[in-house]
Amino acid sequence: MTLIAIWANKPEDPTSIMLATDSRLSNSDQHWDRGTKIFRLGLSHQYFAFCGTALPALCAIQQSAVLLATSNVLSQAILSDSKDAILSYATMVSKHLSINMRSFPKAWGSDATVICCGYCSRQNRFEIYKIVLPIADPMPELVPLLFEKCRFYAFGSGKHEFELQASNAKNSSDFYRAFLQVILEGKVSSVGGPPQIVSIGIKRSKLIGVNWNFPSGGGGTVSTVLGQELNSKHSLDSVDFRDMNFIRDRYLNSAQISRSGRPLKATKKENGITYLAVDNGKSAKRRRRTTGRKPST
């Protein structure tokens, strides 16, 4: 199965929530730790995540994500419900998954859970909707999970372990470390791989990349987003990278390339993080004009 955890940034009147999953897909005793499980609903700031034992269900979820992103279904859903946009999104996801799953061979199985979440400006609150596959006919009413009495929610095979680890969590860093501990301890064999995280705010959302060490890779720590190892040499300004302690970090794979293509140089080191800046030679030229001496290298 997997682990999905969602927590609020503060106990009362939260201004953002964190949606996190692991990256492990399992088939019997075989694992793949680079499976994307978080999907964005079109161009909105709402997301849905997958957990379950039926991998074919993940294909249906991906199909729904593509369809919703390339059609006007979402905008029509918003217009049809003036009270709760997130509920409209969740209902649309549920309907499309129900249609897609009907054609699946029964032997493949369809046991899975889909979590839809986001901020509803019309209700002035963050909402979570849980969709259980296969979807019954008639489709059951979707009831929101709120953060009024509960600081966090967890789903999947790692749910119990996360609840134990997060029982005394006070901030997002604590919740992240609790989530990470479930992965690293390995007590739940179906939970593993780098965390996938997205921060969902009232008016915006942001992907959070994790600098992760794949034990079987032999290549040291690499930057990952949504479970995927990044090899691009370009900067990713739209992603907020963190290290294993949830401390802000840099995109490791862009260490030698700046946006302009000029090499980067280390400027300072703070809390174990080396900060980089473009080495354009201007500082050396300025010292040469001022002192009349060639700067030492």
Q: Please, could you describe this protein's structure?
A:
With 297 residues, this protein is of the alpha+beta class. The chain folds into 2 domains: 3-254, Glutamine Phosphoribosylpyrophosphate, subunit 1, domain 1 (4-Layer Sandwich); 259-297, no CATH class. It has helices at residues 55-69, 73-80, 85-102, 159-165, 172-185, 282-291, and strands at 3-8, 16-21, 25-27, 30-32, 38-40, 47-52, 112-120, 125-133, 152-156, 196-201, 205-213, 221-225, 228-229, 239-242, 264-270, 273-278. The strands form 4 sheets. Strands 1, 2, 9, 10, 11, 12, 13 and 14 form an 8-stranded mixed β-sheet that branches. A 4-stranded antiparallel β-sheet has the order 5-6-7-8, with helices on one face. It has a two-stranded antiparallel sheet with strand order 3-4. The chain is globular. The N and C termini lie far apart (55 Å). Residues 255-291 have low confidence and may be disordered.
CATH topology of the largest domain: Glutamine Phosphoribosylpyrophosphate, subunit 1, domain 1
What value does the average pLDDT take?
Answer: 80
Summarize the amount of helix as a percent range: 10-25%
Output the CATH homologous superfamily of the largest domain: Aminohydrolase, N-terminal nucleophile (Ntn) domain
Radius of gyration: 22 Å
| Coarse shape | globular
Q: Quick one: how many beta strands?
A: 16
Summarize this entry quickly.
By secondary structure, the chain is an alpha+beta fold.
